[in-house]
Amino acid sequence: MCACAWPLGNSAPERAIPTAAAAAAPSTAGHRSRRRHLGPLPPTPPLSTTESSGEAHFADLSRRPSPELLFGLMGYGTDPASFDTGRWAHGVHSFGPSLRLVAEAVGLPLDSVEGSGSVAVARRTTTIAAGTIEAGTVAAQRMRVAGMRDGEPLFTFSATWYCTQDLDPAWDLRPTGWRVQVVGDAPLDVGIRFDVPLERMGDLSPGFTANRAVNAVPVVCAAPPGIRTTMDLPTIVADFRTRSQ
Q1: DSSP 102
Q2: Domain contains 8
Q3: pLDDT tens across 123-153, in order?
Q4: Strand partners, 158
């Protein structure tokens, strides 16, 4: 029998209500659903206490030539009143287990995981690589997943995907990349930008997810049989010697 490793987390998907305020109950059973993962643990070594930590992902989709993805699946160009808010519940399923694992790793287990989100519309008709977004239709969306403890968000993940920066209401947007914020006795605010032209993001961005899984193969094969998380495995380091042969 081989070992199987989740990128982060091995608990069951959170039970979610498909509304803009989806809440979840704790769960610990294994599951096989597809899961996106957060990055490494928040930078905890400098901390002795923490009040909260959050990861925010930003993606400028204006040069992504994928009409089916943007208009068909993600709902851009639709009336905001008919936008599918079930997407926020999907965020709880996808990222809740990761938030739970991080919280348990630092000794602060969560009480629940909640999902919410919002959309912004284009102020004027905008042409992007995938097509045209009419004025007044959805041009940006923001999903937020919060791991709650004692009634307050302890760990959060948010994703902001936008097709134009000319939005109503106006949003605080960043270039494609990540922002990691830690509130504690050694606060941090770290920005990570992808040094890739937007026109090439569709070709290169899958590597940011896939390469980590590929690099984990030797570690997973060497692990004892069973389900393993990133907390159980040693640090995954890429071995470039195998790529140069």
Answers
A1: H
A2: no
A3: 999 999 999 999 999 999 999 999 999 999 9
A4: 56, 144
Q: Which domain holds residue 152?
A: 15-205
How far is residue 245 from each of residues 90, 214, 240, measured CA to CA in Å? 41, 17, 9
Q: Which of 225, 230, 167, 205 is nearest to 57 (CA)?
A: 205
Where are the extended beta strands (E) located within 106-244?
Answer: 112-122, 126-128, 131-133, 138-149, 152-162, 167-168, 177-184, 188-193, 226-228
Residue 42, domain member (yes or no): yes
Residue 217 lies in a domain: no
Residue 139's φ and ψ, nearest 5 degrees, are -125, -10
The C-alpha atoms of residue 97 and residue 99 are separated, in whole angstroms, by 5
Predicted TM-score (pTM) of this structure: 0.77
Domain count, the chain: 1
Per residue in 172-209, pLDDT tens? Answer: 999 999 999 988 888 889 999 888 888 888 888 888 88
Counted residue by residue, the chain has a size of: 245
